[in-house]
Amino acid sequence: MSEHSTYTPGSGIEKWLDERLPIIRFSKEHLMDFPTPKNLNYFWTFGAILVMCLGIQIVTGIILAMHYTPNIGMAFDSVEHIRRDVNGGRMLQSFHAVGASMFFAAIYIHIFRGMYFGSYKAPREILWILGVLIFVLMMATAFMGYVLPWGQMSGWAATVITNIFAAIPFIGTPLLELLRGGFSVGNPTLNRFFSLHYLLPFVIAAVVALHIWALHVPGNNNPIGVDVKDSRDTLPFHPYYTMKDAFGMVVFLIPFAWFAFFAPDILGHPDNYIQFNSQVTPAHIVPEWYFLPFYAILRAIDFSLLFIDSKLLGVIFFGGSIVILFFLPWLDTSKVRSGNFRPMFKWFYLLFVINFIALTYLGAQPADGIYVVLSKICTAYYFIHFIVVLPLLSRIEKPRPLPTSISESVLSKSHA
Amino acid sequence: MATQAHHSTTRRDFIFVATGSVAVVGAAATVWPLINQMNPDASTLAMASIEFNLGSIEEGQSVTILWRGLPVFVRHRTQAEIDEAKAVPLSDLKDPATDESRTKEGHEQWLIMIANCTHLGCIPTGEAGEFDGWACPCHGSQFDTAGRIRKGPAPTNLVVPPYEFISDTLVQIG
Fold first, then answer.
1. Which domain does A96 fall in, by range?
2. CB A166 within 8 A of CB A176
3. Which of A187, A260, A314, B130 has its CA 20 to 30 A from that of A89?
4. Domain extent for B55
5. Do B70 and A184 touch (CB under 8 A)?
6. With contact defined as beta carbons under 8 Å apart, do B137 and B124 qualify?
7. Which residue ranges does UniProt annotate as crossing the membrane (chain B) (predicted)?
8. What is the pLDDT along chain A (416 residues), one digit of tens a residue?
9. How many CA atoms lie within 13 A of B131 on its CB side?
């Protein structure tokens, strides 16, 4: 899709540059003239919103690193120092902390949009896989960032999550000590987490570049899932979608600002304002809200299977719940992309979303009684959706007829 | 490659493979120290062995001490707790171990265990749960009065570290 440029170098300098490094041509082709389906709805603005989120995290994060001290004796106090003493530090810290939550809110909407409209289907499998990879990198980055304030939740999150690796047979314990740099979570752990927390956002930025590259080969999917046929189906990215995305960003920033200004701690946990104590675990530890569904899956497995003990099995399910996303393009073999034209898929998709929200709720509840039973049911359904429901639907479902083109669908809607 | 398959292996092929192999070994040898620096350092390893005086711990009392940065429970068990642990048939246990195997002979009132839950490393709360031992607040594992796993996701009993009695009241851990 690189032959859509109408770029002709205007001045002598532009011509000179174009023959050596065609960066203006590239920008015009991909940021301005790029043909984009004309029927994209507001769910499609989340890609741009996510780029903005990454930008906010990197800028606020670099500033926070100027005032933060990665040492177990000083880390906790240095975060309080940022919040109380540093000029504007209160806002910078809350924008960074709230920003992580908003980033995850946006990526969940982005992922669920892709799942409903079949954006992972051919020829966009690599685009989807890169997206899942970004999600995994984000989880690692957010986890390590959460450890840095060195509160009770930070330290125990570090203990529990690094312990997941100890479940791996044979190499588990040496690997655990390698990750922690000691027999328990301590100063070496905090130091390396700080180093990696600074590194990973730039790795994410690089994978985002690949993700956008992979997007610009086939072009955007769209709400009816029908391929672009000719230029009547598309609009240039600028000004139509730059403006729509900008509007989406502004709307997204309203709840963002509300949290940051009025309730910066509402998404956090009071226990994290107590400095980490390796001898006392808080009575009820929970991860940040955006990890709860996966945490519920990890906790749901309290039984052994054959020669696999409950700990390893829990870790297998926990890892599997994310790894299975990589295989989604080959599990859902229905040729129809958009859920709008799949009468049965639509309902199972809704059920999957409700099940995912239920897992989020269950992850925050104590691990006993009815909650354990419900967690097991929801965990089972999470996997059944991918392994049984999607492949089966592709075979038995009779999709509704698709519109012949994007422009036809847009026009018929406006006449109706 | 298909056309080359007809030719016999030449000295040049051997040199290519040999050079490539040396490069791979060299790269691995270079990368290893870059990874190995993450392993526990000398100052961490130096804390490998400690001595602890049990004299001040009353019956029914527990203390938590640090060994290699890990919290360790030292519990002076009551006779009722010892009897309760001994009364459990091995067939009821997920990770079968006798009470005797978890203590030192002649010192069975002393239970010394690494305090991290064998599930994901939280510190269980003492004198809690259905089995009068420990209950982990994180994922609901419950341990009995010998620190053996009885319920919940933890796969094994609380770990007994290597230790020995130097005298009746002095233990060396590690």
1. 33-411
2. yes
3. A187
4. 45-173
5. yes
6. yes
7. 14-35
8. 445 567 888 899 999 999 999 999 999 999 999 999 999 999 999 999 999 999 999 999 999 999 999 999 999 999 999 999 999 999 999 999 999 999 999 999 999 999 999 999 999 999 999 999 999 999 999 999 999 999 999 999 999 899 888 888 889 889 999 999 988 899 999 999 999 999 999 999 999 999 999 999 999 999 999 999 999 999 999 999 999 999 999 999 999 999 999 999 998 889 999 999 988 888 788 899 999 999 999 888 877 787 887 788 989 999 999 999 999 999 999 999 999 999 999 999 999 999 999 999 999 988 778 998 999 999 999 999 999 999 999 999 999 999 999 998 888 875 54
9. 25
Q: What single string gives the DSSP state of each residue in A393-406?
A: HHHH--PPPPPS-H
Nearest to A157 by CA among A311, A276, A312: A276
Look-up of token digits 């956008």: A212
Determine, yes or no, domain membership for A280: yes
B82 and B17 housed in the same domain: no
Best B44, B64, B156, B173 residue to mutate vs chain A (most A CBs within 10 Å): B44
Alpha-carbon dihedral A209, A291, A223, A29, rounded to 10 degrees: -10
**Closest to A309 measured CA to CA, from A166, A104, A160:** A166
Indicate if B26 and B83 belong to the same structural domain: no
Same domain for B137 and B73:
yes
Tell whether residue A211 is among the known ligand binding residues. Answer: yes
B6, B76, B107, B139: the active-site residue:
B139
Predicted complex ipTM: 0.76
CATH number of the domain enclosing B130: 2.102.10.10
For residues B91 and B62, state if they share a domain: yes
Chain B nearest C-alpha distance from A372 (Å) = 10
In this structure, are B29 and B86 located in the same domain?
Answer: no
Interchain pair B153, A192: CB under 8 A = no
Mark whether B124 and B144 lie in a shared domain.
Answer: yes
CATH of the domain at A257: 1.20.810.10
How many domains does chain A fold into?
A: 1
Domain count along chain B? 2
Say whether B139 is catalytic: yes
Strand partners for A335: none
Domain assignment present for residue A185? The answer is yes
Kindly list the strands in the beta sheet with B50-53, ordered across the sheet, starting from the edge strand earlier in the chain. Answer: B50-53, B170-173, B163-165
Looking at this protein, which amino acid is placed at residue B106? G
